[in-house]
Each structure stands twice: as C-alpha cells, then as structure tokens.
Amino acid sequence: MTVEETLVLVKPDGVSRGLTGEILRRFEAKGYVITGLRLVHADRALLTEHYLEHAGKPFFEPLVEFMESGPIVAVRLSGERVIAGVRSLTGATDPTSAAPGTIRGDFGRDWGAAVQQNLVHASDSVESARRELDLWFS
Fold first, then answer.
1. Which residues belong to the active site?
2. Nearest residue to 86 via CA among 2, 23, 27
3. Could you give the CA distance from residue 26 to residue 8 in angstroms, rounded to a whole number?
C-alpha cells in the first residue's frame, strides 16, 4: 500500500460558485481522507512561490491575478496513490476537453484563453505535493 499526501486548491471560481462541498465530496467518496483544510486569501508572495515554475510564461501574471481575486480552499488529502487518483478526478486542465464525470468536465466553463479558471489545482508528483503542502500548510 502506497499512502501519499497531496494538495488540492479549490480556486476562486470554484469557491464563488459554491462548488467546494461537491468537489470535496467527490474526493471523500473515492476514499481519500481530508487531513487539512484552510480557507485562504492568498497573497502574491505565496502564489508566486507556488507557481514558480511558470514564472515568465505568458499565463503567469493572469494566473496569479486570478488566484488573488478571491478566497481559495486549500486541502491536504491522504490516501493510497492519492496524487494520481486526484489528478484523474479533476480531469484535463482545459475544461472544454475534460471528460464528463471529472470535476472540470462536469463543472468547468469555457473561458477561452483563461484556462486558469478551471476550479481546482492538484499536485502533479510526490515532490510537488511535498513542496506545495509545505507552502500552504506550514
């Protein structure tokens, strides 16, 4: 059994649309355990550190500005192969191409170039999860 931890962020669009409970329900229904939960108004310093690998890319500034625009729910999840499982549940980054049955496929909206408004962020590896959890739950 490979128990891991991962970070999920319910982004400002998910929080403002009242989808936090449904998003968390899906993770719990899959068998993952919420071991940390915070409502955060993230500042630029935290978001810049979180998205550091994207600094200098054209979508970096719009993404940081969007993430600063409202509250975020930071979630620490634990479970067997939770990183891959959560990524599967969230669906493709672009809500238009996300499969039905995934969070982004069921609830995502097509905002054109604004793909950052896709409801959730989920860590993509064990290393990313450790780094991101340290940032959001230090």
1. 121
2. 27
3. 12
**E strand or H helix at 37, and its extent?**
strand 33-40
Q: What is the pTM of this model?
A: 0.94
Q: Is 83 in contact with 4 (CB distance < 8 Å)?
A: yes
Q: List, in sequence order, every residue forming a beta bridge with 9; answer none if it has no partner.
A: 74, 121
Whole-number Cα distances in Å, 36 to 54, 70, 120: 26, 20, 16
Q: Please give the structure tokens belonging to residue 65.
A: 């500005």
- pLDDT tens across 3-38, in order? 999 999 999 999 999 999 999 999 999 999 999 999
Contacts of 122 (CB under 8 A, 6+ apart): 6, 7, 8, 9, 83, 86, 87, 90
Q: What residues does 74 pair with on adjacent strands?
A: 9, 38
Query: By C-alpha distance, which of 13, 60, 12, 67 is closest to 43?
Result: 67
First-to-final CA distance of the chain: 27
In contact, 27 and 89? CB cutoff 8 Å: yes
- Structure confidence by residue, pLDDT tens digits, 83-94: 999 999 999 988
